[in-house]
Amino acid sequence: MELPFAESWKIKMVEPIRKSTRQEREQWIKEAHYNVFQLKAEQVYIDLITDSGTGAMSDRQWAGMMLGDESYAGASSFFKLKDMITKLTGFEYVIPTHQGRAAENVLFSYLVHEGDIVPGNSHFDTTKGHIEGRKAIALDCTIDEAKQTQLEIPFKGNVDPKKLEKALQEHGDRIPFIIVTITNNTAGGQPVSMQNLREVRAIADKYHKPVVFDSARFAENAYFIKTREEGYADKSIKEITREMFNLADAMTMSAKKDGIVNMGGFIATRLKEWYEGAKGFCVQFEGYLTYGGMNGRDMNALAIGLDENTEFDNLETRIHQVQYLAKKLDEYGIPYQRPAGGHAIFVDAPKVLTCVPKEEFPAQTLTVELYLEAGIRGCEIGYLLADRDPVTRENRFGGLDLLRLAIPRRVYTDNHMDVIAVALKNVYERRESITRGVRIAWEAPLMRHFTVQLERL
Question: Which residues carry this modification: N6-(pyridoxal phosphate)lysine (predicted)?
Fold first, then answer.
């Protein structure tokens, strides 16, 4: 008899969490203006708002923190981190930042200018915000199949080569670089194949354009290449990672995801010109070049986290838990972006709340309903996150409207996944009684979902 699957780690520290009553949650979410970002952490039972900075670090990482070098310039911790990044990616030049959006801010301050067009695969919220905030355009070139949530194909995060080439033919002189997000978060945590990365590289070379990877979940992308793409089953995660980055010129990284640290990020590139151009913005926005926005102890922890999380067992344990939740939702008939992604389940809200019109934000409404049901905090990745069109100022309803349930790494057990699944089932069973959603009472001009204030209709 085959042994059942079990985690590749054991627990040596725990943190208590508290259940709340429905009456308490109704009051709390009203005080938060129906925006789960405005809830206090202690008002949440199971927190799935993000997998960013919420993972549990390993014993080696905690030990590494005790050896952090906090020297202002030339800290040994920086060189440990730099050496690990270069080993994994081949990129020689490294700029540390305090998190992924800071990496985008530093690099895009050098590369993105008013009127530019940056094609990519479903730019995430901060990426799009940093592009549009500079009066440039984030052009989505994701494959059309990504919008069909019930379609099962292995690499739903891919760039559409025809869309990308058309953009370069029409706007080549306005395109500073191509960006590829691995994995594609906005499309549902969906991976990008090595074959597609090669196709993007070939088109980029044809038009003499550099390629940047948004790499927050690059290790999970490598896992899917190993398990789903022909020719990679016998390659290690580190070998696949190096092959992926050989097809790029630079990367931005939110280390809070696949680096499994609570805070941190970096830019890495093989282009000395880009390093020289961006490093002044690091000094201006983040700090000196050998710490950027990070402590020495955090750089130590990140170097170790990158090493550990580019091993198969660690990734298999993490992704298996996401797949476990997906199977539970299959049992209950709840539609989500299929196949299950690497870091989260993305519930197809308009297919659940069929009576809530798009103008009343079904995914945000479902997010509120799940919190009211069981104190579970998810995150809307949809019409609210899409912001308004920067020209027309109209809401953008063209993409998917998803409730993301992001699973922190090494934090919750499968018992928690069972609670999440049953809570969603309870909401799903009363879906026809949910006929109205929410409306915006106040919003920021960019990345509004973090601070938006809503009213129930």
Answer: 257
- Give me the torsion for CA of 149, 155, 161, 167, rounded to 10°: 50
121, 192 Cβ separation under 8 angstroms:
yes
Extended beta strands in 262-322, E state: 265-269
pTM across the whole model = 0.95
pLDDT digits (tens, 9 = 90+) for 239-296: 999 999 999 999 999 999 999 999 999 999 999 999 999 999 999 999 999 999 999 9
Distance CA 152, CA 218 (A): 21
Q: What is the DSSP string of 375-416?
A: SEE-EEESTTTT-B-TTT--B--SS--EEEEE--TTT--HHH
pLDDT band at 398 (very low <50, low <70, confident <90, very high): confident
Question: Model confidence over 56-97: pLDDT tens digits?
Answer: 999 999 999 999 999 999 999 999 999 999 999 999 999 999
Q: List residues with catalytic annotation.
A: 72, 124-125, 214, 216, 257, 449
CB-CB contact of 106 with 286 (8 Å): yes
pLDDT score recorded for residue 213: 98
Percent of the chain with pLDDT over 90: 92
Radius of gyration of the chain (CA): 21
| Residue 333 banded pLDDT, cuts 50, 70, 90 | very high
Q: Provide the angle, in degrees to the nearest 10, between the axes of the packed helices 194-206 and 161-171.
A: 20
Task: Taking each helix axis as running N to C, give the angle between helix 218-228 and helix 312-332, from 0 to 180 degrees, rounded to the nearest 10.
Answer: 80
Residue 384 has pLDDT above 90, yes or no: no
CB 437 within 8 A of CB 356: yes
Burial class (CB in 10 A: 0-12, 13-18, 19+), 291: buried
Q: Could you write out the three-class secondary structure of 434-450?
A: CCCCEEEEECCCCCHHH
pLDDT at 148 (0 to 100): 95
- Collapsing DSSP to helix, strand or coil, 232 comes out as coil
Average the pLDDT over 93-110 and give the result.
96
Q: What is the pLDDT of residue 235?
A: 98
Task: Name the amino acid, one letter, at 163.
Answer: K
Q: How far, in Å, CA of 310 to CA of 248, rounded?
A: 18
Joined tokens for residue 60: 């080696």
Instruction: Decide if 408 contacts 56 (C-beta within 8 A).
Output: yes
The number of beta carbons lying within 10 Å of the beta carbon of residue 163 is 17
> Which residue, among 9, 77, 50, has the nearest Cα to 254 in the 3D structure?
50
CA–CA separation, 278 and 103 (whole Å): 10
- Rounded Cα distance, 66 and 266, in Å: 21
